[in-house]
Write a structure and sequence with these properties.
The complex is a heterodimer.
Chain A lengths: L1 H7 L2 H23 L32 H37 L1 H16 L2 H11 L4 H12 L1 H14 L3 H8 L4 H37 L10 H9 L7 H34 L1
Chain B lengths: L4 E9 L8 E8 L4 E5 L6 H8 L8 E7 L13 E4 L13 H12 L4 H14 L5 H5 L8 H12 L6 E5 L7 H17 L3 E6 L2 H7 L2 E6 L2 E7 H6 L4 H9 L15
Parallel strand pairs in B: 3-7, 3-8, 5-6, 6-7
Antiparallel strand pairs in B: 1-2, 1-4, 8-9
The chains are: A mainly alpha, B alpha/beta.
Chain lengths: 276, 261
């Protein structure tokens, strides 16, 4: 309860939360708001926005409803963003915790793997991964997580290095808990808060990476994504710029919303520290 | 009667250190005995406690032996020894419920289900006199005071009914009233549960009041060990005498006199 109140005290966090909530509800309600395939041809091609009441945001050059695409695209963007961040935080925090807790050779080995992933640009890694395998939603999620798990890993390890010296970890050793159990049950939950604060930034990055992959034609071809809509509009950029601008604005809103939400989370966590 | 714990010529050097932290320690601890280890900061008291509890950092250089003659095997953490630490702020995990932390050792060693272990935990919390033990099971460490946390830590340490309880400056961070309560609690528990106690402290008065025997440490060496009354009344080693002399009691004559007159 008090956590909610602490969060509510940061205005940026509340704004971010409202934006994300709107996006999430739109994404969840997409099949109700716009039933049927958003990729089907619904009307005349290239209707400009705000001219035809049945197509408020107009149609693209094949006559597909832009608003329907936008709403259905929110699903892909949010799913990919959140799932990729989840996978990245999960892998990262486990690897970081094990490295920090085990120390010695295991630490060195795991952190060199982290280094190896970190020196390759995340987008390039995702691009290579998707072009080798089939571009489907799970593969895209995995590809993005592959470039994003190193941040959480480093952060978790740094936290664990200080946590493993605390007395309650020694107590856990003394009552005879298995080291792996100590690492995952006693240490990992205490190392999580800063990693979770970072996860909002990862979500924002993942949404952008997914859009970029779709823009290059490496997204899942069977679903609408904002990236593929921008790419679609590129061909008629001079005559109908709105086709690229509208999904671009949606992207901006999502990224800004996630980022503000992350700021709110960070503020909440730091307030807890001041409090205790 | 064979000793519970026996150290023979035990020497320990921390990693990347040239000076050993413990030098040639030999002592025996009989079952049911209460031993106080005293000495100034840096004398090696805590190192000794941690060495007995197998908590040496990686890369520590050891020689000599620590054995458990009455067990006839190496000691198992939790069921053979338990430990209470100094800092009540960090000896409990902030994100786990009290019930979980106290039940953990019981579940691990007594082969109980979570439900049974929780009953054991409730029993232990009553034993260490935590108010509203049922509610405490579901509470988190930050909801308790330092003294209460230390009681909970004691409950967690004795959950698997260890033979030896090691208290590493367990009362040093508490005020004198709470300290007296905790000492009384440890004393009662050790007597009723028939445990052996190794009590690390820098407070010689506390040591003489609680322990059967006192061991005096100085710069990593065990300089003197003997029955508590004898050490206090008739110290043989000059360092022990020095420690006793520097101890200030309320009965002592005032050291600053006539200043205000």
């Amino acid at each position: 309860m008090s956590a909610l109140r602490r969060f509510a005290r940061s205005p940026e966090g509340v704004v971010g939360f409202v934006i994300l909530l709107t996006l999430a509800s739109v994404a969840l309600l997409a099949p109700v708001l716009f039933p049927g395939d958003p990729l089907r041809i619904a009307g005349a091609p290239l209707i400009p926005p705000f001219t035809d009441p049945s197509f408020p945001l107009g149609t693209d050059r094949l006559g597909r409803d832009v608003l329907a695409g936008l709403v259905h695209g929110a699903r892909a963007s949010l799913i990919v963003g959140i799932a990729a961040a989840l996978v990245a935080v999960l892998i990262g925090s486990i690897v970081g915790t094990l490295a920090g807790f085990a120390g010695g050779l295991i630490d060195e080995a795991l952190m060199r793997v982290v280094d190896a992933f970190q020196i390759v640009p995340g987008f390039l890694l995702a691009l290579a991964f998707v072009s080798v395998l089939q571009p489907s939603l799970p593969i895209v999620i995995l590809a993005i997580a592959l470039g994003a798990w190193t941040g959480p890993a480093r952060l978790a390890r740094a936290e664990v290095l200080s946590i493993r010296e605390r007395d309650y970890v020694a107590s856990a050793r003394i009552i005879g808990m298995h080291p792996l159990e100590i690492a995952l049950r006693e240490v990992l939950p205490n190392a999580l808060p800063p990693v979770l604060a970072l996860s909002a930034v990862i979500v924002a990055g993942a949404v952008l990476t997914e859009a970029a992959l779709s823009f290059l034609g490496l997204g899942d071809p069977n679903i609408v994504t904002w990236g593929s809509m921008i790419a679609e509009g590129r061909a008629v950029l001079r005559s109908a710029p709105y086709l690229s601008i509208i999904p671009g604005l949606a992207l901006v809103a999502t990224v800004v919303g996630t980022y503000l939400f992350g700021e709110g989370l960070t503020a909440m966590l730091s307030r807890r520290e001041q409090h205790s | 009667m064979t000793a519970l714990l026996k150290l023979e010529g035990y020497t320990l050097t921390y990693p990347r250190q040239t000076e050993p932290a413990l030098i040639d320690i030999s002592l025996e601890l009989a079952a049911g005995e209460k031993l106080a280890v005293i000495g100034e900061s840096g004398s090696g008291k805590s190192t000794l406690a941690r060495a007995v509890a197998c908590l040496n950092p990686r890369g520590t250089c050891e020689s000599g032996t620590i054995s458990w003659p009455s067990l006839g095997r190496s000691a198992q953490a939790g069921s053979d020894f338990g430990m209470v630490f100094q800092d009540p702020g960090s000896n409990l995990n902030p994100v786990l419920r009290i019930g979980e932390q106290v039940a953990e050792a019981a579940r691990e060693h007594l082969d109980l289900s979570w439900k049974e272990a929780e009953a054991v935990a409730l029993d232990l919390l009553k034993k260490v006199q935590i108010p509203q033990p049922e509610a405490a099971l579901r509470a988190y460490p930050h909801q308790f005071s330092g003294g209460q946390r230390q009681r909970i830590a004691i409950a967690a340490a004795i959950a698997a009914r260890p033979r030896l309880l090691i208290a590493d400056e367990a009362t040093s961070a508490l005020d004198t009233l709470v300290q007296a309560e905790i000492v009384r609690l440890i004393e009662t528990l050790v007597t009723t549960e028939k445990m052996t106690l190794m009590f690390i402290t820098h407070d010689i008065a506390l040591a003489s009041q609680l322990a059967d025997r006192i061991a005096v440490m100085h710069r990593g060496r065990l300089v003197e060990i003997g029955p508590a009354e004898e050490i206090v009344a008739n110290p043989r080693d000059p360092y022990t005498r020095h420690l006793l002399d520097t101890h200030i009691d309320l009965d002592d004559a005032p050291r600053i006199s006539g200043g205000a007159a």
